[in-house]
Design a protein that fits this description.
By secondary structure, the protein is of the alpha/beta class. The chain has 13 helices and 10 strands. It has a single domain, classed as Metal-dependent hydrolases (TIM Barrel). The protein has a 5-stranded parallel beta sheet with strand order 4-7-8-9-10. It has a 3-stranded parallel beta sheet with strand order 1-2-3. α11 links the parallel β9 and β10. α4 runs parallel beside α5 and α5 runs parallel beside α6. The protein is globular.
Length: about 325
């Protein structure tokens, strides 16, 4: 399929580049090149595999792992200015998500507003929880101090992409002796799914009914669990005790959009489309950590209808992010 739009596609700047070295020395030379390149190899891969536009975002955990608040604010601004400069070179091929210093909700609100209103960004991508002031102070965004931030996200009418990061080392007892489970194998999705469910249970979407959240990797495992989350031994008549007024499935299907980033598996795609409707699923690759060619070839040949392929591959992203494409 020609004209695909990919929207979990990462870039690094010098202060965040080292965050991606964890994938190993054997891939680092190639991965490093892919992270800092925008207009050369990346664009060539897009042309080769029918991708018209990429929405750029910072690598992970990046800003969220900078526990010094002033530094987090400064690096977020530096990253956003760098991303904006790349987009200005080829606005027909690139758009961008804002990186945000969520360590300071007021500063994050101001930076998102700047990025949307002044730089023309189409939303934000945030790498999970933030560490604030000390390395072990982990903060999630369902907490009350973030309500003014969410009010601004809703007012700006842009999506918020909740992207994975690993749990902190002190929080990984369950992975001891099994470090292979960290990262994209399991921990990324487990951590992000819990964060998304916290947002739902907190009542956030009752207070802000026009919020739009994006999850990658076909929903971080949540779609297949929706019935069980809400069913919960139903005969016992013990409803969830949380602030939200409705069941999890209600909010998930109404407020969340999913992408195929890093999950090139047709049964999982079909499940996501069945649970969410094909209008809430979008194509993505997860470049440079996944390969554009692999993701594009899979999607172009996936056993779904052509009308749905067009929606997932292009039309849904144009509508959600208000992209000005022909």
């Amino acid at each position: 399929m020609q004209g695909k739009i990919a929207l979990e596609e990462h870039v690094a700047i010098e202060p965040t580049l080292g965050d991606s070295q964890v994938f190993g020395a054997h891939v680092w030379p190639e991965l490093r090149h892919r992270l800092i390149d925008v207009q050369d190899t990346r664009l060539g891969e897009m042309d080769k595999h029918g991708i018209e536009m990429m929405i750029l975002s910072l690598n992970a955990p990046a800003i969220q792992a900078i526990h010094d608040i002033k530094t987090a604010i400064a690096v977020a601004r530096q990253a956003n200015d760098a991303l904006a400069a790349e987009v200005r070179k080829r606005p027909d091929r690139f758009a961008s998500f804002a990186a945000l210093p969520m360590q300071d909700p007021e500063a994050a609100t101001a930076e998102l507003t700047r990025c949307v209103n002044e730089l023309g960004f189409v939303g934000a991508l945030v790498n999970g929880f933030s560490q604030i002031s000390t390395p072990d102070n982990v903060t999630y965004y369902d907490l009350p101090q973030y309500r003014p931030f969410w009010r601004t996200v809703e007012a700006l009418d842009v999506p918020f992409y909740l992207h994975p990061r690993n749990p902190l080392p002190d929080w990984t007892r369950q992975y001891e002796g099994h470090n292979w489970l960290l990262g994209p194998n399991w921990a990324f999705s487990a951590e992000t799914a819990v964060h998304a469910l916290r947002l739902i249970g907190s009542g956030l979407f009752d207070e802000h009914p026009r919020l739009k959240i994006v999850l990658g990797h076909l929903g971080e495992g949540i779609p297949v669990q929706l019935w069980r989350i809400d069913g919960r031994n139903g005969w016992m008549k013990a409803p969830h005790k949380y602030a939200a007024k409705q069941g999890v499935g209600h909010y998930f299907r109404k407020h969340f959009h999913l992408t195929t980033s890093g999950n090139f598996h047709t049964p999982s795609l079909v499940n996501a489309m069945t649970e969410m409707g094909p209008e809430r699923v979008m194509f993505s690759v997860d470049w440079p950590f996944e390969d554009v060619g692999e993701g594009a070839r899979w999607f172009d040949g996936a056993a779904i209808g052509e009308a749905d392929r067009r929606k997932v591959g292009r039309d849904n992203a144009i509508k959600l992010f208000k992209l000005k494409l022909k």
